[in-house]
Amino acid sequence: MFDSDSGRDPQSSKFTRRIFGAGAVAAVASYVVAKLVQAPGVEASPVVHGTPGMVKIVSFKDDGTRLDTQMVPRIVKSDGEWYKQLGANSFNIARKADTEMPFTGVSWQEHGHGIYRCIGCDTALFSSTTKFDSGTGWPSFWAPLAKENVLEKNDDSMGMRRTEVQCARCEGHLGHVFNDGPDPTGLRYCMNSASMKFVKG
Ligand SMILES: [Zn+2]
Predict the structure, then answer these.
(1) CB within 10 Å: which end of the chain, N or C, has fewer?
(2) E strand or H helix that includes residue 94
């Protein structure tokens, strides 16, 4: 689950150079050991993610009332800081683009009135008024609260083209958007509940 970052990890690069001189069997054995040793280190990892700069975000009250549009600084933090803030489950999903098991999250069955904010930075993302039961086991919405508050990016992982949805302020992974949703947009924002927190409004 940390494979996507191993190439940027200085420890990993050192390790890669070291195995060039070893036999294949030893290399595989070393790789397994290295992965085992690396995994717990994320709590203290200084590897920083995020794009410094400002971003335009629309503020919302917890009841979904739209407030003003503001320029705010993007969130840039290290893996270690994110891990401490989010805990293992939300870290792996929101920061490492893992997907939670369907029908296990905290909000796929949430029917209360309110909004869903980013677990990492509180940005208002979705409203209960656009939530619908998709039958997938993941919280699903037919629109975000504001287009400015989410980023949509091509994702070619898993051998298919999908559109990943991220928080615009902290670039946390939220889920994917598909075009098989209900009216009025025909979109299905299929989100991970571990990437968001529901706030009653
Ligand atoms: Zn965020």
Answers:
(1) N
(2) none
Distance 167 CA to ligand 1 centre (A): 5
Residue type, 138: W
Beta-sheet strands, E only, within the chain: 48-49, 54-60, 66-73, 77-78, 114-118, 124-127, 131-132, 140-141, 150-155, 162-167, 173-178, 188-191, 196-200
Upstream peptide bond of 184 is cis (omega within 30 degrees of 0): yes
How many angstroms does the Cα of residue 201 sit away from the middle of ligand 1? 19
Helix axes 24-38, 10-19, angle to 10 degrees: 170
DSSP 124-162: EEEEGGGEE--SSSS-EESS-S-GGGEEEEEE-GGGS-E
pTM for this structure? 0.78
Which residue matches tokens 């898993």?
Answer: 158
Catalytic residue among 118, 121, 170, 190: 190
Q: Give residue 65 CA to ligand 1 midpoint distance, Å.
A: 19
Q: Is 30 helix (H, G, I), strand (E, B) or coil?
A: helix
| Predicted confidence (pLDDT) per residue in 63-101, tens digit | 999 999 999 999 999 999 999 999 999 999 999 999 999
173, 186 contact by CB (below 8 A):
no
Q: Is 190 a catalytic residue?
A: yes
